[in-house]
Every structure is written in C-alpha cells, then in structure tokens.
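To: structure subgroup
Subject: Chain for Friday's discussion

All,

I'm putting the inputs and outputs inline so they're searchable in the archive.
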Amino acid sequence: MRLVSAPNQTGLAPLLTDEGRRLLDELRDHDPAQELATATRLRREHPAELVSAALGQARLRQRAVAKFGAEDAYRMYFTPHGVEQSTRAEVAAYRARRFAALGVRRLADLCCGIGGDAIALARAGIFVLAVDRDPLTCEAVRANAEALGLSELIEVRCADVADIDTSGYDAVFVDPARRGGRGRIFDPEAYSPPLSWAVEAARKAPYAALKIAPGVPHEAVPDEAEAEWISDGGDVKEAVLWFGTEPGARRATLLPGGASLTGRGLPDPAVRPVGRYLYEPDGAVIRAHLVAEAAEELAGGLIDGTIAYVTSDELRATAYAAAYEITDVLPFNLKKLKALVRERGIGVVVIKKRGSAVEPEDLRKKLKPAGPNSCVIVLTRVAGAPAMLLGQPVRA
C-alpha cells in the first residue's frame, strides 16, 4: 500500500524542523514495501501529517540518489516533478564548469526547478539567481541551498521568468518544462516557456545556455547558437544551445570522461563491406550528426547508408563508440541463428538492433540460450539487406 505523499499539500515546513529532520534521517534506509507498518509505528510518536510528509520525502530521496548521489540526495528536499525533471549532478557540474571557464560570475537560472543546476553553479563559485513560479519548488530550492551550505551563493525568487530583468548578470540559463499532462512535449514551442522566448532571453545576455530535449530538430537550432548533445554513461541526457560561444558549432560531449567531438562539416562516410570490427557510436554522437567525424577517426565506413554503424579492419581507441570484433556476418535467418547459439554453447546473449523490426526480447525467447559462452548479436541492415552480425565487445 502506498501512502499519499504530503509535500504537495502541506509544503516542506514540517520537514525543516528538528523533529522533521530526525524523522527523515530515521527513514533513510526504510523499505517502501513496509511503508504501512512503518507509518503505523511512527504515528505513535509523531503527528500523522509529519509522518506522511516524511514518508513521501523519503521515497523521493531514494529516487533522487540515481541523479544526485547518496551524499547529497539524503540531505536535499524534492518534489515529485523536481526529481523527474532535474538535471543529473554529473551533467550539471559539467555545464557549471563551462560557465565558469567563460568567466561567468553572476547567472540567472530561469525555471530553476528544485535547484540541481543552481547547486552545481554555486559550487563552481558562481552567484545564482534561481527563479521559479511554483512556491513549493522555490521552498525546495531554499531548503536545498541551506542544507548544502550554499545559501550565500543562491538567491531564490518566486516569480514568472518573463518578469525577471537579467541585465545585471553575466549569463542566463533556461531549463523550460518539457512535460505536460500527457507526458513529454516534443514541440519546442510547446515548452513552458516556449523555446522562442528562451532564445530571446539568451540573446540579451553575454552568455547563455538553453537546456532542450535531445531529439530537437537540427533546423530548430538558431544560427548563432552552438548545439551540444550530452550523454552520461552512454545515455543521451539532453541537448544544450549555447550563446556567446561558437555560433553554428555542433558538439557531442560524453560524460563522465568529458570527451567532446566537434563537427567539421564532413560528408557522409562511404558504405563498405563489414570489416573485422564494428563500432557503435555513442548516442550523443548520433544525435549531433557527427557519425562522419567519428568514422574518420576510426578510418572506417558505414555498413549501410541509413544505419549509424561504422566498420573498419583495424581496432582504434576511441571515446566516441563501443567496439565489437565481428566473427560472423550473415543474412538474417532465425533458424540459422538458433543453430549457431546452440552449437556454440552460448548462454549469455546481448542483442542490439538498429534498422531491424525484430524485437530483442522476442528473439531471446526464441533462441533459448544455454551454455557457458557469451555473444553479442547485432540485428541491422548491411547494404540494404537484413543481417545478423555476431561478435564480442573489445577494448583498444
């Protein structure tokens, strides 16, 4: 049984008392499956409203560990939307370092959410005006700034971002809401505020960064903006439009290592037969349309003109793609694949697909892998024809 989370109804005030903080510390490692029993026990010693609020906040903190790490997450305060929409700490820290390197000392964080970016910026030594129109969200930002010892560097203002004068700041950061009542919003003009408003706000500052969805059409990127796609641990997290840096540049940045690939306007790589090695470019490289730049670094070509797999006869070290040594290149044939898996004693199968209608989990059930060996199976197209590539991951 799940209890109704109280923070949206009562605010965070009960949790900011000494009793509230002690209760949250006690709930740090609680099991949500035992929530009813826990609530019953705690209500013998604490007000029911406080117990409900603390349990709701404890659940949010547990979810937030993946983004903020345990040390910060268990000191911070969250709202349900704030956990979902906040920037991952590693990404926010990277962006803060970029702003600091530009010489930014005062920044207006518009649509600040629960303060994930504001925290990273303050830790980089930047004074932040954090603005949001939701009172509960602003309450969370203030609580987080205090809990992390950053109150002197974060000023919180509960207001509509359209009413904020940013003329006294070195930079503007805008993170529009990209979720609505029906889920994710894909039209940049349906963001809140719209991308066009954010762009105009960016143009008024010496430097600016606008956080947008990684699937943004390239034609929606203003000519004067640098577009950067960021992945963390192999997952594409966001795209950022930078103003005041490198107009027209396209960049893919891979965290946590920080490798960054910049576009050079190369033509599409040539299509060639599958070589000994197959390279799978990072999602940020693909989103940034920089597969050609990655292929040049790898001395490789494409296996198909519409598929972002690069192949080469030599193994080269790269931060921008995962490498596989290919042992078999075959037309797709389920019967043949089942026989190979059985004959080779393959019990661990990693199935990848690009340009294939086959669902990996459906295929896994049909293969019934069993045995001591492992294999990577790539379902894709080679020169326009459905194919299956078998191999092993390798590191240069």
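Points worth raising on Friday:
The chain has 14 helices and 18 strands.
The first strand starts at residue 106 and ends at 110.

D.
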